[in-house]
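hey can u check if this looks right to u? its 289 residues, i copy pasted from the old doc so theres a chance i mangled smth
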Amino acid sequence: MKLHLLDRSSVANTSITVSQNNYKNFLKVWHFHEELELVYIIKSTGTRFVGDSIEKFEAGEVVLIGKNVPHMWLNDEVYFEKNSTLTAQAVSVHFKDNFVGQEFLSLPEMQPVAQLLKKAAQGIKFNHIKDNIKNELTNLYNLEPALKITRIIELLCKLEQQQNYTLLSSNGFINTFHKSENKRLNIIYEYIYQNFHTQISSKDVALLVNMNASSFSRFFKTIHRKPFTRFLNEIRIGFACKMLLENKESITSIAYACGFGNISNFNRQFKIIKDQSPSSFLSQHRKHF
């Protein structure tokens, strides 16, 4: 598949672009852009691609996507039939992560929103969104430019308070990490992302931050709510998905390139994390492109 960079900057020279989409089908292009994107699906069904996440979507969902995250909403085949009367309707909001200025997001009161925008690097699907938020998104288009800014800030504050959400793409696919104020965590993340393709262990990382193995395991699991091995395998599998989609190497070559010592363990971990085999994952993407 070919990944396209789209220009979502405002032609009206505004910091926020609000679009009301009402088409026979959504744009069938796997793409990314510098702007974050907040999407509310009003009417449509199909398959949503965000990074290495592939899920069905339907009317009512609200998703926040970070900058430079590949994504696409692909409608079901019935939308592309010659005599189809179906329509795909959505509200999409595009804005830069500094649309209100970095100093504003640095305010103590805005830290929850700043963290929300960082989480969006994986794509966030908000579950069970209340109708009042959906209505505010729908009405954004008709607001004056200055009111759009204040309304977006209000909406982000409300979304930040949502406890029920799903992070869509894996860390490995996005190939980045969220820096923390904790210097120890920064060292850990940097080491993992630089060495995940090699045979590293929790003991290696523990020594790096001057901790014994058992203390490090407790520390890491407390922070991430998962063991170090699981986190490492998610990074590896996420990167493997990226390589699979690039379609330049065989599955076996990719397994070794991502740090797995044998193909059997790679297939097993892929199944655990992605709930499908590498070949199924690849086939699922190919049939849509």
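Residues 228-246 form the longest helix (19 residues).
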